[in-house]
Amino acid sequence: MSRVTVVGAGFAGLTAAYELIKAGFEVTVHEHGERAGGLLGTHRTAFGLVETAANALLCSREIEELFADVGVAFAERRPERRKRYIFWNKPRRWPLGLAASVRTLIQGCRLSLGNKDLVPMEGESIAEWARRFAGPDFEQRLLSPALQGIYAGDPENMSALLILGKIFADRPAKGRWKGSVAPEGGMGALVKALEAWLEERGVKIHYGSQFAFSEPLSEPVVLATSAWSAATLLKATHPHEARLLETCESLPLVTTTCFFEPQHSDLKGFGCLFPRSQQFRALGVLFNASVFEKRSSVRSETWILGGASQRNSVDLSDEQILEAIQADRSRLNKGTAVAAPLDYKITRWPRAIPHYTLAWERTLLALNPKPPLFLHGNYLGEIGLSRIYSRSRRLAQQIKEMYG
After folding, report:
1. In the Cβ-directed half-sphere of 121, how many Cα atoms lie within 13 Å?
2. What is the pLDDT of residue 1?
3. Whose C-alpha in 39, 159, 266, 332 is 20 to 30 A from the C-alpha of 362?
4. How big, in percent rounded to 5, are the helix, strand and coil portions of the chain?
5. Which of 134, 85, 126, 83 is nearest to 105 (CA)?
6. What angle do CA 282, 287, 293 make, to 5 degrees?
């Protein structure tokens, strides 16, 4: 049986190991930290669950099969989750006016009919593409705030090709469940289930491991870490790849889950995003108890701060973060005074996600490591857990074709 080493036990590493085992390989995992999951984690508090990063993932047939295979049940979803808001003077389900809406609809039809002129071009930013596609209102009120909830970047500098290119490519087959899903016990339950599944099949996960590359590599190695961690690991043996990976800019994020006494005026839905021009401190807020059942016995909200526009958010004290949230929450609730939270938990990630800049678009074109070294992670053009899992499947198939 051929052997593969996976470095990193975040979601990318765990799912890569999972797919490699299914492909017939013997797998060993090395993790620098003391736990699996990377940014993903779930805390149980007296008032409900707290996620340290993503609270859900986009469903597909692949995701349904993964959940079933590792024995994780889907959380029951609430009907009001379908309501998603963008704040433009007030929370709106659709922030565009009539003229901008008509133009967006017409351009969307042209794009669906195969108009190549509307596809993002190399070297074009998200903001440039959005304005070219349907005008400044579409960019400022709809696309940029929608993407900042995922990428947290600067739309004037983010690559349209990297971010939107995948939308126009083939997608995983749709499953029975539509939209966002989550494990019944939170994202940490999925991490634990993957970890247990691997261990049951003889996969040894070495925690606190100081993995070092040898040269030449004698067997496939999947480096499933952040770009900046990969750069450190590769510096001695793969200096060209290390220099490229070092240029990957990281973005900080702060997630703060607050629990409040429920009020009749509370907005119900998945959450609300805040365009930059509306001058909120937060990028957006998730209404956790309105999305999935059994998330909280009270009102649970997760506020997201940081990103390219407010990099110093990770340096704020707990009191300053709560003050910013209370001010934003008052505006969201039509300027009314809001009560202090019953409880809260703040998670700071100084280097949370890669910034998908135009410079990084150019770098990815030059980043082409030679097997048996394989790179894997959310910096390679696919962000979001579902896309990362799809890449794990493709990567395992590629390694099987070469070494199986």
Report:
1. 10
2. 65
3. 39
4. 40, 20, 40
5. 134
6. 155
Instruction: For residue 49, give the H/E element and its range.
Output: strand 49-51
What would the two tokens of residue 248 be?
């990957």
Res 378: pLDDT: 96
pLDDT at 166 over 80: no
For residue range 13-42, list pLDDT tens digits in order.
999 999 999 999 999 999 999 999 999 999
Q: What is the mean pLDDT of the chain?
A: 95
Using DSSP's 3-state secondary structure scheme, residue 4 falls into strand
Torsion of CA 162, 167, 172, 173, to 10 degrees: 180
Segments in 221-367 forming alpha helices (H): 227-234, 239-246, 288-291, 318-332, 358-366
Which residue is listed with tokens 């809260």? 344
With bands split at pLDDT 50, 70 and 90, how would you rate the model's confidence at 218? Answer: confident
Residue 152: name the closest of 25, 40, 16, 273 by CA: 273
Q: Per the structure block, which two tokens stand in for 380?
A: 């390679």
Q: What distance in Å separates the CA atoms of residue 120 and residue 210, rounded to the nearest whole number? A: 41
Strand 221-223 and strand 57-58: the pairing is unpaired
Contact between 88 and 140 under an 8 Å Cβ cutoff? The reply is: no
pTM equals 0.95
Q: Is the pLDDT of residue 169 over 90?
A: no
- Helices (H), ranges, 52-205: 61-70, 98-112, 126-134, 136-137, 144-151, 160-164, 187-200
- List beta partners, residue 37: 10
Over residues 349-367, the pLDDT tens digits come to: 999 999 999 999 999 999 9
Rounded CA-CA distance 14/19 in Å is 9
The whole-angstrom separation of Cα 345 and Cα 352 is 17
- 26 near 234, Cβ under 8 Å? no
For residue 337, pLDDT beyond 80: no
Among residues 173, 223, 184, 145, the alpha carbon closest in space to that of 49 is found at: 184
Answer whether residue 170 shows pLDDT above 70. Answer: no
Amino acid at 118: L
Q: Is the pLDDT of residue 172 over 90?
A: no
Residues forming beta bridges with residue 28, ordered by sequence position: 5, 204
